[in-house]
Amino acid sequence: MNHTFKVINARKIFQLLVAILLPLAVGGLSGLLTQNSRVFYAALEKPPLSPPGFIFPIVWTILYILIGIASYLVYRQGYDKPYVKDALRYYAASLTLSFIWPLVFFRFQMLFGAFWVLLLLWLIAGIATAKFYRIEHAAGLLMLPYWLWITFAGYLNLATWLLNR
């Protein structure tokens, strides 16, 4: 194995790790900023199909790993291409909204406001998923569970607001 091949592989592995660690860091920071929300969440009346609170960090961790891999697959198609940059901008916007939503819901306890953030997240993540799919089918498929979970979270958020207003 020659030196150039090792350097290229090391660079790809590093890029993949960064791509995975970025959404994990976003989720971790929002989790850290809302860590005292267990009492608030436990006191809420919850709709049918509400999973126990401990499920959310597990699901989000898995989803963040999947979308990190998806972003890497898109990035490796060539960041210099305008359509790749565009798709990654939507992805970055979805990460930003994924960071904001728990703050609005848990920290500020604005359930209806959080629903509107989630609705925007659903739209932006859906666009990102479609753009990823057009660039690299596997990337779009890896984004799909994220978008579906956001859909489910929208139901939970709206129903929780309706039950607790």
Compile the SSE list and pairings:
Elements: H1 3-33, H2 38-43, H3 55-75, H4 82-107, H5 111-135, H6 137-164
Helix pairs in contact: 1-3, 1-4, 3-6, 4-5, 5-6
Description:
The chain is mainly alpha-helical and about 160 residues long. It has helices at about 5-35, 40-45, 55-75, 80-105, 110-135, 135-165. The protein has one domain (about 5-40, about 50-165): Ferritin, CATH 1.20.1260.100. The chain has six helices and no strands. α3 packs antiparallel against α6 (about 135-165).
Which labels suit this protein?
Ferritin; elongated; 165 residues; 0% strand; 6 helices; mainly alpha; 83% helix; single chain
Order of helices and strands: HHHHHH
Give the percentage of residues in beta strands. under 5%
- Compute the separation of the termini in Å: 64 Å
**Can you say what the CATH homologous superfamily is?**
TspO/MBR protein
Low-confidence runs of at least 5 consecutive residues: none
